[in-house]
Write a structure and sequence with these properties.
- By secondary structure, the chain is mainly beta.
- It has a single domain, classed as Lipoprotein localisation LolA/LolB/LppX (outer membrane lipoprotein receptor (LolB), chain A), CATH 2.50.20.
- It has a twelve-stranded mixed sheet with strand order 7-8-9-10-11-1-2-3-4-5-6-12.
Length: about 190
Amino acid sequence: MKFFRFFSIVIIISSSHSNNLKNFYELLEQTSVIKLNISITHDQLGKKYKSFGDFFILGLNKYFYDSSDLKISVNNDDIVTKNYFSRQIVFNDLDKEQLNLFDIISGNKNYIEFLEYKGDKNRYDFHISSIGFKGYFLFEPTSGDLRLISFDNDFNQSISININKIELLDVYNPKIEKEDFEVIDLRG
């Protein structure tokens, strides 16, 4: 079964080099859990933050990020963050009207306006006018696999997300254990 799923990913992503972006969005419509092994670099005002982990797309508006320094669970309007450095678990409301990083990675196109196609089938430029960001999706030329999502704004802030591997899973049920962490509940 896993071989079939892997083979399906290869077919979906590689079958047509004419529109890698369209193929990626079709992959996101699969009913399976999608696992992306990613590295995130966030540069803001000269300070860099890096994180390496696995990002799971569990369903519509349901995501989970798992790394050695933090876990983040998004379930519709709720977000739970477990920070291993501060030893805190924070519960908070998520504003549906506001774009977040997970929306971009998971393929939510509600806020993203793709710019005119310039003939490079491997790079797709976009603009997010609501927050003043511009960026691009970059695909591997030979396989058509998504490799990078990069965006920045005019205020010395940039984010790049390298996609190292994409997998389809049958099931993934993440949990955030409380252990000996301080729990902060900011839900209204």
